[in-house]
Amino acid sequence: MSQLLWNRDFALEQTAGDEELLEELLLLFKDASAGDLEKLRRAVDENNASAVVEAAHSLKGASASLGFETIRSLALEMEMDARQDSVACAAAKLEEMASLLAEVGKL
Question: pTM for the full model?
Answer without folding.
Answer: 0.93
